[in-house]
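pls ignore typos typing on phone
flavin-adenine dinucleotide + seq
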Amino acid sequence: MSDHEINIQPDPDWKDILGIEDDLTTEEKLVQKTAYDYSSQELFPRVKEAFKNEIFDKSIINELGKLGLIAPTISTKYGGSELNNVCYGLIAYEIEKVDSGYRSVMSVQSSLVIHPIYEFGSEKQKSEYIPELIKGNLIGCFGLTEPNHGSDPSSMQTTARKVDRGWSISGTKTWITNAPIADIAIIWAKTDENILRGFILDRNKHDFATAKIDGKFSLRTSETGEIHMDETFISDDCILPNVVGLKGPFSCLNKARYGIAWGTIGSAEFCWHSAREYALNRNQFNRPIASNQLIQKDLVDFQTQITLGKLAVLKLGREMDKRNINPAAISLMKRNNCQIALDIARKSRDILGGNGISNDYHIIRHLLNLETVNTYEGTANIHTLILGRSQTGIQAFS
Ligand SMILES: Cc1cc2nc3c(=O)[nH]c(=O)nc-3n(C[C@H](O)[C@H](O)[C@H](O)COP(=O)(O)OP(=O)(O)OC[C@H]3O[C@@H](n4cnc5c(N)ncnc54)[C@H](O)[C@@H]3O)c2cc1C
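k done
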């Protein structure tokens, strides 16, 4: 009997060989199960058509809200569940196993819209918006990027001019997730004194236009658009009163980047498991392609990268639950996990051969999505520069 025949059954714990999930608390496991059940039963059946036809079903945001999967770390006073950062990460991980576009919608609503209102808003702003955003009755978006300023938001051109009893905002934001369907927009703009401030624009109260960006080949299940403001008047009570400068948007981005570091592991895991399954069932040269050492090496590389990435992001979440973490640690994990997920998706696509490019097998969708995930919330290069600055003390951005 050959070794191949003796070892015909895979190890029962190949999926989680270090038992990482055993380190989760009962509450964390419950949150993960809720997110898994919802994602596999409600999101997965819709994703193929949604990606093909480039549609976002708005009811998804209500469904996420009903299950408590939006902004779970927020205080119960505003409708949150006061869960820890690990729970938030696990939600991102389970949703992104299905699709990065759906995870993006959840991340924007939680980290880029609810978080700034919660951290920097007035009591009136918090009670007016957060409970409805958490339930998914309102949809929000976050406008930082502009046509001429992406990686360098400090040079932004959107202005907020002080006028009698309020502000006049002018400028264009682009590549904004949820913009076409948003009820409110968190807009970052520069005042007459060249100081960056955050503002809440409300579709029911303020005059601004949002145009959908069609024809994306990535994140097709989430809507992306532009925001145009031409002397849009907003009253004084629409400014976020408790933050000044880049600290505002960067604090939001750090929250979202942490979620991405978890989410990309979910996406990578989907690709790994699909590629393994396929390799075991696909015969070429009269034997499963999984019998080839070259294919097994890829599968083992996937397992190694995913195991290390998951372990590290769990450690990051635990640290964030204990203390104010150095933002460079978040850059480390966003950069690493995006890059390993992209690599795993590309190689998994290859293992599926021609079938790998079909929407029916989902991997090409993950691969295309991950191209955006690697770019937004700070490109890989920008996180490299953040980490380089952190260990050398030298700014290499410009
Ligand atoms: C689908 C999608 C959704 C998005 N959603 C949002 C959103 O909701 N809100 C929002 O505000 N933004 C959003 N973005 C925008 C995103 O954050 C930006 O695309 C990203 O920050 C990069 O900016 P840019 O596209 O202008 O590229 P640029 O900044 O022009 O960068 C182009 C390339 O140059 C590199 N580069 C730039 N500077 C340096 C440097 N100093 N050293 C080395 N390399 C450098 C970059 O790494 C990149 O590879 C979204 C983008 C996409 C594609």
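Residues 183 and 197 are 20 Å apart (CA to CA). The radius of gyration is 22 Å. more later
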